Amino acid sequence: MVDTSSFGWDGHVAPTPLEEYSKRYADFFEMRREGGILELRLHTDGGSYVHNWAAHNAWSRVWQDVGNDPENQVLIITGTGDAWFQGDPRQTWPKPLVDETPDYIFQQTIDAWKLIENFVNNIDIPTIAAVNGPGIHTEFALMCDVTLAAEDADFMDPHFMVGTAPGDGLSLALQHLMGTKRAAYAIYGGTGIPARKALEYGLVSDVLPREELVPKAWALARDIMKRPRFARWATHNILNRPWRKLVTEDFGFHFSQQSLATVASKALIPDPDLVADARKRKIW
Q1: pTM
Q2: Using 50, 70 and 90 to split pLDDT, how confident is the model at 277?
């Protein structure tokens, strides 16, 4: 525990403690911390995460609270059960976004924007993702310093496949990690990238049986913790530097294109017919 009172800083405003923010985000993350290592586990009602806009809103703020807490020195992000992400787009998107109020559109835009910006810019500690199964919205897992994947994990960007542009950060990660041509082929084709292929392409650091995934992340985190704090902090800054540059230079453009495509179409996105086709192909 860092005793800031010993610094002699009168009027010091303490960061929000884990005991407080872990309760605030309990509907979306299970949190545990041991020896400076914080594990955030996505969940919905104790099971695999099912996408909803309340969680989407919370993500950008949890990155801030995690990053502002000096007791967090290594971050592990993982999911629950055998899927990283689940969700029925018919429930998530009941009507075209253009039919929502301006304030609704603005808030959803800000949430998606800050989800990426805050993750990359607010977390100044080593980050490890343990992708426990298939699912979309893996952009912040791919932007971690180390990304471990279960053998049945699958990476894909479904945006173009269901009728809009790929701009929420996942396409940015795919382009950076696997190259322009491979990313374009995957995005246009709406094809999943299985874990072993993701390892070959450089999307992930290692592929492991699901039961070994989180223990490996913790073993790596404990090994990282053996190094001095300044060394950990500076090494993360070096490893995270490409993401900060990409987000600063390109993410705003990417996301504005997705927003334009989604609103300007004046249609329901994801397109129900295209989603049905995706289910038929066992992509969604």
Answers
A1: 0.93
A2: confident
Residue 143 buriedness (CB in 10 A; 0-12 / 13-18 / 19+)? buried
- Tell how far CA 225 is from the center of its chain: 23
Within 10 angstroms of residue 57's Cβ, the number of other Cβ atoms is 17
Annotate 205-250 with three-state secondary structure: CEEECHHHHHHHHHHHHHHHCCCCHHHHHHHHHHHHHHHHHHHHHH
Measured distance CA(253)–CA(10) in Å, rounded: 43
- Residue (of 262, 271, 270, 250) closest to 104 by Cα position: 262
C-beta of residue 65 within 8 angstroms of C-beta of residue 26: no
Alpha-carbon gap, residue 78 to 40, rounded angstroms? 6
Query: For residue 185, how many C-alpha atoms fall within 13 Å in the half-sphere facing its CB?
Result: 6
CA distance 59 to 85: 14
Residue 283 in this model has a pLDDT that exceeds 60 = no
Contact 127, 236 (CB under 8 A): yes
What are the residue numbers of the active site? 139
Is the previous residue joined to 270 through a cis bond, with omega within 30 degrees of 0? yes
